[in-house]
């Protein structure tokens, strides 16, 4: 295990300094809380979250992301952060950002009503032991009707105006739908431009759709930050088999599995490391932040080492990775940029006319 107190020679940014509160100043790597859940770990209550947080903070990670949908994640993170702030005096609340989500309750259970939005936010404040939330995303918007999405976003805007939350936005899988909602909001005076969009599994080695939308989110929708999550595609981009809950078609999983075996056999590389470098290199070029789901200090340290390789701009690593990207994109064939079904059929809103050039 890497030494926590001595492993501070490499940092991705300032540590233990008061944050500005602006979303543009969140760290380039964000500690993701989806892994503090039984989908990823059999017993999340026995995970060493306190030391994982300490390791993250020491290395300049100043942002935590979670959701009520992630099982006990909010509770576990909240209790750990409360200990580090109020008992250990290890860090101050104004030295990091807390991001959470709202609206998704269970796998097939969503509540975007204004009453639930408020109740859920108040519950998150209690669980996370804080009197404000830096950023709240409406969770997995593609599963809810458009009019309910917009109504929920108006409620989040109200909570922002009251100071309960500092920023708000949307999260989900289909990038085109995220873009549509963001553009609708930008043209709706009762909501206005969203602060943030969080996309997952669309900015990775297998799927780069998010990269093509980044500039449009900023210029056409007025988005401040676009967050890239699940750069290992929810466990699919690794040597081990994907988690059982993964919704990708079996043929896609099989193609990625073949890729993982090939890169290990011929180059002695783990697909997870290679895929991490690919996603970070492309997203850092756009000045974006990446949410990392790491369960242990070892996993987080491995991701930090890939970050260091990318930011050090080592020619030999860059050249080798460029060759491998071309090779494995060809190996994926039609599975490159393949997506799986996510969400419900949406009725087109007549409230805003969207320029087809967008």
UniProtKB/TrEMBL annotation:
Protein name per the record: BA75_02373T0
Annotated Pfam families: Aldo_ket_red
GO function term, MF aspect, one: D-arabinose 1-dehydrogenase [NAD(P)+] activity
Oxidoreductase among keywords: yes
Organism: Komagataella pastoris
PANTHER family per UniProt: GH17980P-RELATED
Lineage, opening ranks: Eukaryota, Fungi, Dikarya, Ascomycota, Saccharomycotina
GO-annotated cellular components: cytosol
InterPro entries from the UniProt entry: AKR, NAD(P)_OxRdtase_dom_sf, NADP_OxRdtase_dom
One annotated GO biological process: dehydro-D-arabinono-1,4-lactone biosynthetic process
NADP-dependent oxidoreductase domain boundaries: 28-322
Domain of life: Eukaryota
Alphabetic keyword roster: Oxidoreductase
């Amino acid at each position: 295990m890497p030494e926590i107190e001595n492993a501070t020679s490499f940092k991705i940014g300032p540590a233990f300094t008061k944050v500005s509160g602006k979303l543009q100043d969140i760290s380039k790597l964000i500690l993701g809380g989806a892994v503090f859940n039984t989908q990823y770990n059999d017993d999340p209550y026995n995970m060493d979250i306190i030391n994982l947080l300490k390791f993250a903070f020491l290395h300049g990670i100043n942002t935590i992301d979670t959701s009520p949908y992630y099982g006990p994640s909010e509770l576990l993170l909240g209790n750990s952060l409360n200990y580090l702030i109020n008992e250990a005096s290890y860090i101050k609340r104004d030295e990091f950002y807390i991001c959470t989500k709202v609206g998704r309750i269970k796998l097939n259970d969503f509540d975007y009503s204004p009453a639930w939005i408020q109740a859920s936010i108040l519950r998150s404040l209690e669980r996370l032991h804080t009197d404000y939330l830096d950023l709240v995303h409406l969770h997995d918007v593609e599963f809810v009707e458009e009019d309910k999405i917009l109504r929920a976003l108006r409620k989040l805007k109200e909570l922002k105006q009251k100071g309960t939350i500092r920023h708000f936005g949307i999260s989900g899988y289909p990038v085109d739908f995220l873009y549509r909602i963001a553009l609708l909001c930008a043209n709706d005076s009762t909501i206005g431009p969203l602060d943030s969009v969080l996309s997952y599994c669309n900015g990775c080695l297998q799927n780069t759709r998010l990269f093509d939308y980044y500039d449009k989110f900023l210029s056409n929708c007025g988005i401040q930050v676009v967050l890239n999550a699940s750069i290992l595609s929810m466990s699919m981009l690794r040597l081990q088999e994907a988690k059982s809950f993964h919704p990708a078609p079996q043929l896609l999983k099989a193609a990625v599995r073949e890729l993982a075996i090939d890169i290990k056999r011929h180059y002695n590389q783990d697909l997870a490391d290679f895929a991490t470098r690919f996603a970070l290199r492309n997203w850092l070029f756009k000045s974006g932040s990446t949410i990392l789901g790491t369960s242990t200090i070892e996993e987080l340290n491995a991701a930090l080492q890939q970050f260091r390789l990318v930011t050090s701009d080592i020619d030999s690593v860059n050249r080798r990775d460029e060759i491998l990207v071309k090779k494995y994109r060809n190996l994926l064939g039609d599975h490159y940029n393949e997506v799986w079904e996510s969400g419900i059929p949406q009725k087109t809103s007549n409230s805003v006319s969207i320029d087809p050039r967008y």
